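During the reporting period the student researcher (J.K.) took over the structure-prediction task from the postdoctoral fellow and processed the backlog of single-chain submissions. One of the processed entries is reproduced below for the supervisory committee.
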Amino acid sequence: MNETQLDVEVHCLQPRWVADERSKYRLYLNGELLTERDWIWSQETYIQEQVVVNLVKDTIHSIGIEV
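J.K. obtained the following structure tokens:
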């Protein structure tokens, strides 16, 4: 396994996500939840998630974001 830093930029595409106090986003790696955040930023804000994970070398991995 290799320790790897994932840098993922997240941006709000829907204004209602900012207005809805219950809005959250979830970041997944290979279907496993890495982090969940409340969306408290404006629609113009880009945030960068930096997550360190152990990954199997020479294997394809998938990253997903769910709102």
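The committee noted the following: Strands lie at 2-11, 24-29, 32-38, 46-55, 63-66.
J.K. will present the remaining backlog at the next meeting.
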